[in-house]
Sequence to fold (474 residues):
Amino acid sequence: MKKLKRPVIGILLISSPRFRNLGEGTEHDFFYKRKELVADDLCSRMDFADLIFPGVVYTREELAAAMDAFSQGHPDMIFVSFLSWSDDFAWIRFLRDMAPIPVLFATIVQPKQSFADSMTEDRFVEFLAAGGLVGSQEASGSMARFQRPMMKQVTGLIDHVIRETRQFARICALRSELRHANFGLLPSYNEVMWATYIDPYALFMHMGPELRFLSVPQLLDEIEALPCQEVDGAVANLLEQYPGDDTVQPDKMRASVAASMALEKLARRFQVEMLVLNDLDIGLLTKVGLRPGFTPLPGTDDVMVVPEGDIGAGLACYLLNKLSGQPVNFIEPFYIDYDDNTFTAGHAGPQDYTSPGSKTRISEDTRFAKTSYKYAGAPFTWNVIAPGEKTMVHISQDKGSFKIAVAVVDALECEHFLAGYSHGILRPRIPATEFFGELLNFGVTQHYGLTDGNWAEEVAAFAKLMGFACLELF
Fold:
């Protein structure tokens, strides 16, 4: 999939009209010129985002113009800071009239003030200019009264505020992308895993993606339309990149690659980024004769495919991919090795096998090798999870909304040892029994996304932004 988009931030800096023209002829000039320098410095530090900055707001008219600029520019979030003491009229109108949007309310603290006293006019204006704390405290009372959703408060030195703004901007950009994303379900939920069911209306209302329902006949049409040369080229490419064992049969390999290619083409046809496949569906297995085992195909990264009809787990994988920009494994924990404080996890079926450092072989899908399906045992990319620090995320429905569990674990070096399942050995940062006790008390399903690196703070911040229950195991 495409990388997380560059955030767009609206900048709302508020100051008092009573101070605006003070300081004429002083060493540091007018009050408003001093604040323009502050604004310029702040904006220059936000080079990680595109900014909508309509200028420092002093009057009702300037506030109205700022909100118009935000409405037209569609920012992912709005950064708000009081530059001095201020009247209430601007802030309370913003709280009342601005459409729902994430807001970061920042109180920026100076390590040392630039004045020792207020005995001259210049130093008196500097004293007034240092009064953002007064404005912030007054503003906080209105924040408590209005109780707008998606508001975050940060107080600290400028470097701390900028770090928090960068992180908040990323999760706000993720929120925006979800609201414009399309997910696909082919062809249905997994009827033996009711706990994984997601209400499509709740998905759209609370998270954003539109769910598009795709069918096995549509997939068959895509398979039929594939050019032979394209399929043959993909087969050759895979066999060149990954070793195949003696279970691989050429006709079944070709059929699995073709079905995988058709899945991706069908997703693109319907502008779907995340395709949730019920790979255990009887219609799929009887009509297609296998479950596709080669997504993403070499050279493609615009469609993610996850198995077992679990949209919540698909969301977890989508979030991790967007935040990390890296491949994501779809896993379920199988069992705990108590003495080693590890658990073995993985999954059969479609799996992103492209993570650097992981081990991939092409081998028989042993789960279906002895069935009567046309391409029984058709091969797949048998992947062993790369070692290193990982972020592990679960998402499922929770009383009409959603819940998120996020953990940091370590993947250990290992070889292929579970036939038919992409897999790995993972170690939590706490005792494994305590780890799963927390998850079971929280109430999860068996599926998680897993990716390289530590993205836990951002995932937890996203859950808080969205108002979701969140279990943090990091």
Observations:
- The chain is about 35% helix and 25% strand.
- The first strand starts at residue 8 and ends at 14.
- The CA atoms of residues 255 and 292 lie 8 Å apart.
- The first helix runs from residue 31 to 45.
